Amino acid sequence: MEFRRVDNLPPYVFAVIRDLTLELRRAGEDVVDLGFGNPDLASPDIAVEKLAEAAQNPRNHRYSASKGIPNLRLACANLYKRRFGVELDHETQVLNTIGAKEGLSHLMWVLLEPGDSALVPSPSYPIHIHGPILAGAAVTRVPMGPDEEDLFANLEDAWERAQPKPRVLILSFPHNPTTATVDLEFMERVVAFARHHGILVVHDFAYADLAFDGYEPPSILQVPGADEVAVELYTLTKSFSMAGWRVGFVVGNAAVVGALARLKSWLDYGTFQPIQIAAIVAMNELPDYPRDVSAVYQSRRDTLCDGLARAGWVFPKPKGTMFVWAPIPEQFRELGSLAFAEKLAREASVAVSPGIGFGGDGEGFVRFALVENEHRIGQAVRGIRKLLERSPEPTGVSRS
Ligand SMILES: Cc1ncc(COP(=O)(O)O)c(C=O)c1O
After folding, report:
1. N or C, which end of the chain is more exposed by having fewer CB within 10 Å?
2. Distance from the CA of 245 to the center of ligand 1, in angstroms?
């Protein structure tokens, strides 16, 4: 049988490393798994307690509101006011989604049709590329470039190249997988670009709260008037360590939020109400929780990056996300990222994501997800150090 929409999805490169990790573990190897970005930290106690309590009440067993109950949307609006100084009308500008991923995917159905196109940075979180494609649209790739100046130039260039002219620009900062970060001035330029070309910006803000060394990621909605041309995805997955709960939001432009609410009212009956009630408690009562989570990831980042640097693998530390994006050391570069990731799994007992899995522009890199504790990350560093000692870098080649 043919399943054209699904058959056209490329093979999931990450599955190769996931299967290899399972195989090695079955054979008794203690592989440190820094591959899949699945947060390992426990969700807040009061959210778990509230969920259990709310689940006892039969009134919460019925279908809920597909767009989210009003107090959940209000809690999100209040979080935006408190965290970013952004005013949102929770009735028209905030919609609950089943995590950012579902929100983004269905948003593409609302915004794009066959014959349309979207601008998407590359490398990218895979659904940023395949969300528009699943909606039948074409994607024009925008190479990330080493800094925001390059990205902006590449964006202008991609606009010129794109046929048909794009209706949507997908962005996400702090960025998975490259960990690139931007400042508010960059967002101002993006908003001006969107106004000038009459396109909508979808900003996936999944790492809104995971920022290090005093860096504060901007919300695109902090730019005055941004809600005329932008929506943003916010999620409790990383900020509140609530990955499995599937609580996210699309916020900003009221017409877009309304259109997605309309589509979702056809597709689902909303998140299980006890989860919504627990999410309200987390957002209202734990304003400092995201900062504490971020401190855990910062410390893991330091253990990994400092350890790798001592082993001779040196590159700049990320300012945000829960990842480390590392250029493949010179002596292994010819292998390519998939074979190098396999080598790390087999010979250093460390699983990472090959950069190629995030699109062709990710080749030459591997991504570490900081989802094991510092003790285990230290173990990963020791494994990698031994591998590097066995295969020293050729003399005269600079490390970067
Ligand atoms: C850029 C980005 N967006 C969205 C998600 C998924 O978020 P959620 O769990 O809210 O669907 C991830 C998770 O890795 C991500 O990296």
Report:
1. N
2. 13
243 CA: nearest ligand 1 atom: 9
Domains and CATH numbers, the chain: 4-42+289-390 (3.90.1150.10), 45-285 (3.40.640.10)
DSSP state of 133: H
Place of tokens 């100046």: 149
pTM of the predicted model, to two decimals? 0.96
Distances (CA, A) of 280 to 51, 190, 264: 10, 32, 21
SS3 370: coil
**Cα separation, 175 vs 321, whole angstroms:** 7
Q: What is the C-alpha to C-alpha distance for residues 194 and 50, in angstroms, rounded to an integer?
A: 41
The band of 130, judged by pLDDT with boundaries at 50, 70 and 90, is: very high
Using CA positions, which residue lies closest to atom 2 of ligand 1? 206
Q: Do 338 and 12 meet the contact criterion of CB atoms below 8 Å apart?
A: no
Query: Is the CB–ligand 1 distance for residue 235 below 6 Å?
Result: yes
